[in-house]
Amino acid sequence: xxxxxxxxxxxxxxxxxxxxxxxxxxxxxxxxxxxxxxxxxxxxxxxxxxxxxxxxxxxxxxxxxxxxxxxxxxxxxxxxxxxxxxxxxxxxxxxxxxxxxxxxxxxxxx
Length: 110
Description:
By secondary structure, the protein is an alpha/beta fold. It is 35% helix and 17% strand. It has one domain (2-109): HAD superfamily/HAD-like (Rossmann fold, 3-Layer(aba) Sandwich). The protein contains 4 helices and 5 strands. The strands form 2 sheets. Strands 3-4-5 form a 3-stranded parallel beta sheet. Strands 1-2 form a two-stranded parallel ribbon. The chain is globular and about 35 Å long. InterPro entries: HAD-like_sf, HAD-SF_hydro_IA, HAD_sf. GO terms for molecular function: hydrolase activity.
């Protein structure tokens, strides 16, 4: 399992210190590593070239609809939105995407 983020490596390191997520992932990848944000098809090309993931068999979860749409455009078959990524705010409409309420639900299943 790979975590991909648009966060810069430095802020990713800080987040991982605060939230113990790193043990759940084989790799942590910042879009900055490739020079393209997750919204760009160039990002997905670079990710596939480096990791050889199979979009038809992959699950991608994100809290940003344009990023989910970019993944869908690339061919990622299984997409899931997070409707309440910020516990301080109410849930948001995830439009055409199925959703979980927040990341804590996902962590319980890992």
